[in-house]
From TrEMBL:
InterPro entries: Beta-gal/glucu_dom_sf, Beta-mannosidase-like_N2, EBDG/EBM, Galactose-bd-like_sf, GH, Glyco_hydro_2_AS, Glyco_hydro_2_cat, Ig-like_fold. This is Mannosylglycoprotein endo-beta-mannosidase. The keyword Hydrolase applies. Keywords: Glycosidase, Hydrolase. Residues 215-333 form the Glycoside hydrolase family 2 immunoglobulin-like beta-sandwich domain. GO terms for molecular function: hydrolase activity, hydrolyzing O-glycosyl compounds. Belongs to the glycosyl hydrolase 2 family. Residues 899-970 form the Exo-beta-D-glucosaminidase Ig-fold domain. Residues 346-478 form the Glycoside hydrolase family 2 catalytic domain. Pfam families: Glyco_hydro_2, Glyco_hydro_2_C, Glyco_hydro_2_N2, Ig_GlcNase. Residues 39-156 form the Beta-mannosidase-like galactose-binding domain.
Length: 978
């Protein structure tokens, strides 16, 4: 008997170019199936593109490496047949009694013929649509099944113009990566079995061969709130499909559970409804609302917990038993959005609380669409680690997958989901191939509706947007506005007095709408974004002076959907992704106007390197630290600039929270390939220092220096007032002395405000040093617990950082105490790093401060636990797994102590850890990094006598022993810590 439920078909696939296969689909799935990856067959990547499969089998070079992509033929030159491929696999599925099986494709680009055991089905066209085939009568009685899929590229792949259509760095997804136009089975393939035999005598009496099980299709969950979020109703409408020739008498069961202490689940609701479904009918059934009193709410990152309930809907057919089951993690939350009257920017509220948006733009997880749950989880946790609260899924990428949204739900990232309208993606780029946008408007709308149904139950989904820097064609835009219009309940503010009984008898149930709970905006620069009118008023996209972000004239609109800058990765990534000729650093060309132009080598230019200078406007920010001598020196100095640049960007925006701005999204968070600009972590998952600059600046509670006014400010984005707090200010010179120290006590900061506290007057004092360090700490007076810590480095006006060059020789001693916790392949390392150089004699409070442990719920890598308890992970992913880990009994190593010797007093500057595989047969130049690694902090500095906790978590490959290495500005040779 087959097991009811869904099973992915993600292993054991072969592929072959269609022109090299001389057999028909019927023959492949009956008499002549391929049994091994022998010519012309090869191991296939599913999910993935045809190009991903060719790369895996070394039939084309890695397009992400150097200039290798140039040698891969483009479909415009090869013709569509070159990238038309067969995909083949086998699977086991043996049915019993009245069981029923569907073969599901969650997305194929662009069309396909499906052959199963000699039977043919033709899938309709469309990259963003799901397909479900009833194969109950096709699967073999013995359970062994042969599946072949012939995948065709888009009908009109087009020719990419030399300029790439989309300018700047985002021409890559169009021009460089997608030589096959993303042809392939690029998303999940699965089989789903419904129906279960319970009453055999009843089946015999009813001639069970004529009875088909019921199927649940696309349930829609909506929550409504009353009495200041104390009373909540859960609305649900679901599709029910009865393909039999008889009326199906069904019991529709709804169960809502939540977690309680100890990892157990509490049943909040259990209800059964009796439904009759006519023969051959597909019906939409709306269940009576379920009432909750004071449920745990879902909040964005930094505003509260991401509470999730498990909603399970099951259907039983009278006399037959359980037929189908569906479940989903659902978060009770209400998202409201309006144009702010003060700033003109779009304002978002979650559960009635305004959210100051700090986030960035997302392109793709991987340019070859090798989509994986594990990679998604790392990507989204990185965004949470940066304290971001929104991701914009840019319109030139994908309608993101449910797994992406699942982790956004877990980590609290609101999502701006854009439809695929932008430049050459819809034919309106350069040259124009179709002024009316997509060739098939009805197909576009069909795919859009299906995407909405796929994603609408995720609490992280905040809004729909029609297109990037343009709007859809008029008919599409009108249809989207109509079909995604808000339900009347969501057009009004949360009711404080009206009851559910007063409102909903007058309205359709909100779960009956296609969505109805979140806004639709026609384009990324309309209606509260950029200038709100569609003019090109996003950006800029280049290096800036750090103080510029704080000035009145930097950006004049309330919400910037794209502002970009640099993003050079570390030297190890350049070596891993470039041949020797690509390791040359840029030439610094002095211009007649006194500015410097950076001239990168051809490979860096191809990979969209963006300079750290803007001749005529911004002097080179790397040269402030001295002329780089080699790749390592260049990349290290680039990390210094990355940190300063992105911290200043977010601090500048946050400084004007609600008075000038409602939010900002950085262009961009990450790269789908080995790009060299606009990223906080590279394609190999190693973070840049900009990652930690953002992490600092976007803290929910944060102390910062306004670089334009030189006032120290406290930012409080939480819903609670800060009281009885103090700010400690200390300045450190290059000799390790503290010439300036002040404490400001008994401070209070209102909720959701940025408040200037006092002017930092050290630069105006006598005998100030040309280069100095500034340490700001915000702490609770009651227990000296640090709420925020912020470390700056400065030069005096007209100067530079070149005095830091000899400072690299200063040997400042460190002591690192660590303990390692191991569970299978998962490692967690807890360290305390202390600068052991002599403390100043003054009675500074600095050494009374202690770091408050951040809420660690979810800080460890959830994916590392999947092997520990995969069944629980499937049933109740996310919060339960994280709480299980908090009670997990680790295998712990003894406490270890490592010391870095030194006799000089000073700041231990720009410390950063990395994790490597210990390999006795290590080859010179080999990349030994273990990635990804989640750090509680990195690229940090310590004043004399200061101590910081640093936690690391990562997974290691089988048989590998990890090694942790410390580097820093004055620790450039590297020190093995453990």
């Amino acid at each position: 008997m087959g097991e009811m439920g869904k099973r992915k078909l993600d292993t054991g696939w072969f592929a072959a170019r269609s022109t090299e296969v001389k057999l028909t689909g019927v023959e492949l799935t009956t008499t002549h199936p391929p049994s091994s990856p022998d010519q012309p067959w090869m191991e296939a990547v599913v999910p993935g593109t045809v190009l991903a499969t060719l790369v895996k089998n070394n039939l084309v070079p890695d397009p992400f490496y150097g200039l290798e992509n140039e040698s891969i033929i483009d479909i415009a030159d090869s013709g569509r047949e070159y990238y038309t491929f067969w995909f083949f696999t086998t699977f086991h599925c043996k049915l019993s009694g009245n069981q029923h099986v569907d073969l599901n494709f969650r997305a194929i680009n662009y069309s396909a013929e499906v052959y199963l055991n000699g039977h043919k089905e033709v899938l309709p066209k469309g990259m963003f649509r799901r397909h479900s085939l009833d194969v109950t009568d096709i699967v073999h009685p013995d359970g062994e099944n042969l599946l072949a899929v012939l995948v065709y590229p888009p009908d009109h792949p087009g020719r990419i113009p030399p300029e790439g259509g989309q300018g700047g760095d985002h021409e890559y997804p169009i021009k460089h990566c997608h030589r096959d136009r993303n042809t392939g089975i690029w998303d999940e393939v699965s089989i789903s079995v419904t129906g279960f035999v319970r009453n055999l005598l009843f089946l015999i009496s009813m001639h069970y061969s004529s009875v088909q099980p019921m199927k649940i299709v696309d349930p829609h969950l909506v929550s409504s709130f009353f009495d200041n979020y104390k009373r909540v109703y859960l609305h649900a409408t679901t599709g029910l499909v009865n393909k039999s020739a008889r009326v199906a008498e069904c019991s529709l069961n709804v169960q809502v559970t939540t977690e309680v202490k100890g990892g157990f689940c509490l049943v909040e609701h259990l209800r059964t409804e009796h439904v009759s479904v006519p023969p051959g009918a597909s019906v939409q059934y709306t269940l009576p609302e379920l009432f909750f009193y004071k449920p745990h709410l879902w909040w964005p990152n930094g505003m509260g917990k991401q509470s999730l309930y498990n909603v399970e809907i099951g259907v039983e057919v009278k006399g037959f038993g359980e037929s189908d089951m569906w479940n989903h993690h659902f978060g009770f939350r209400k998202i409201e959005s309006e144009i702010d009257s003060v700033t003109g920017g779009r304002l978002f509220k979650v559960n009635g609380q305004p959210v100051f948006i700090r986030g960035g733009n997302w392109i793709l997880s991987d340019g070859l669409l090798r989509l994986s749950k594990k990679r998604y989880q790392t990507d989204i946790k990185f965004h949470s680690d940066m304290n971001f609260n929104m991701i914009r899924c840019w319109g030139g990428g994908l309608a993101e997958r449910p797994e992406f949204y699942h982790y956004c739900d877990i980590y609290g990232l609101l999502v701006w989901q854009e439809f695929w309208i932008t430049g050459d993606c819809d034919g309106r780029g350069i040259p124009i191939s179709n002024p009316d946008g997509p060739l098939d408007h009805e197909l576009f709308l069909l795919c859009a509706r299906d995407t909405v149904k796929l994603l609408r139950n995720h609490p992280s989904l905040a809004l729909w947007v029609g297109g990037n820097e343009q709007v859809p064609p008029e008919d599409i835009n009108t249809a989207l506005k109509d079909e995604l219009k808000l339900h009347p309940y969501f057009q009004i503010s949360t009711q404080s007095g009206n009851s559910q009984e007063d409102i909903f008898p007058l309205l359709d149930d909100p779960s009956q709408y296609l969505d109805g709970t979140r806004i639709y905006i026609q384009g990324s620069m309309w209606d509260g974004f950029a200038d709100g009118k569609g003019d090109f008023s996003d950006g800029p996209y280049e290096i800036q002076y750090p103080e510029s972000f704080f000035k009145d004239d930097f950006y004049k609109y309330g919400f910037n959907p794209e502002v970009g800058s640099v993003g050079m990765p570390v030297a190890a990534t350049i070596r891993a992704t470039m041949p020797p000729e690509g390791l040359q650093i840029p030439l610094f060309k002095k211009l007649s106007n006194g500015y410097v132009e950076e001239v990168p080598n051809p490979m860096w230019e191809y990979h969209k390197y963006i300079a750290y200078s803007k001749p005529g406007l911004v002097h080179d920010q790397i040269l402030l630290y001295g002329t780089p001598t080699d790749l390592d020196d260049f990349c290290l100095k680039a990390q210094l600039v990355n940190y300063v640049q992105y911290r200043a960007l977010l601090e500048g925006w946050t400084s004007r929270m609600w008075s000038k701005y409602t939010g900002v999204l950085i262009w961009k968070n990450q790269n789908p390939w080995t790009g060299l600009r606009g990223q906080f972590y590279d394609h190999l998952h190693d973070q840049t220092a900009g990652f930690y600059g953002c992490r600092s600046a976007a803290e929910p509670i944060h102390v910062q220096l306004n670089l334009a006014t030189y006032f120290v400010e406290v930012v409080n984005t939480t819903s609670d007032e800060l009281s009885n707090v103090a700010i400690e200010v200390s300045v450190w010179d290059l000799e390790g002395k503290c010439p300036y120290y002040k404490v400001f006590e008994n401070l209070s900061v209102p909720s959701k405000r940025t408040v200037p506290i006092f002017e930092m007057d050290y630069p105006k004092s006598k005998n100030q040093t040309p280069v100095y360090f500034l340490l700001l700490k915000l702490y609770n007076i009651s227990d000296y617990g640090i709420l925020s810590r912020n470390f700056y480095w400065f030069y005096l006006p007209g100067g530079d950082y070149k005095l830091l060059e000899p400072y690299r020789k200063k040997k400042v001693p460190l002591k690192i105490t660590s303990q390692v916790f191991i569970r299978g392949s998962a490692y967690e390392i807890r360290m305390h790093v202390r600068n052991t150089s002599k403390k100043p004699d003054s009675e500074n409070l600095l050494y009374k401060n202690r770091f408050i442990e951040r809420d660690s719920d979810g800080d460890f890598d959830v994916a590392s636990l999947e092997a520990v308890n995969s069944r629980i992970e499937e049933k109740k992913e996310g919060g339960l797994i994280r709480r299980i880990f908090s009670r997990f009994q680790h295998e712990a190593n003894a406490l270890r102590v490592a010391e870095v010797n030194g006799t000089e007093v000073g700041v231990a500057f720009f410390l950063h850890f990395s994790v490597h595989a210990s390999k006795p047969d290590h080859k010179e130049g080999e990349d030994t990094r273990i990635l990804p690694v989640h750090y509680s902090d990195n690229y940090f500095s310590l004043a004399p006598g200061e101590e910081m906790p640093i936690n690391l978590s990562f997974e290691v490959p089988p048989g590998v022993t990890p090694r942790v290495t410390l580097h820093g500005w004055n620790y450039h040779t590297g020190h093995t810590i453990l």
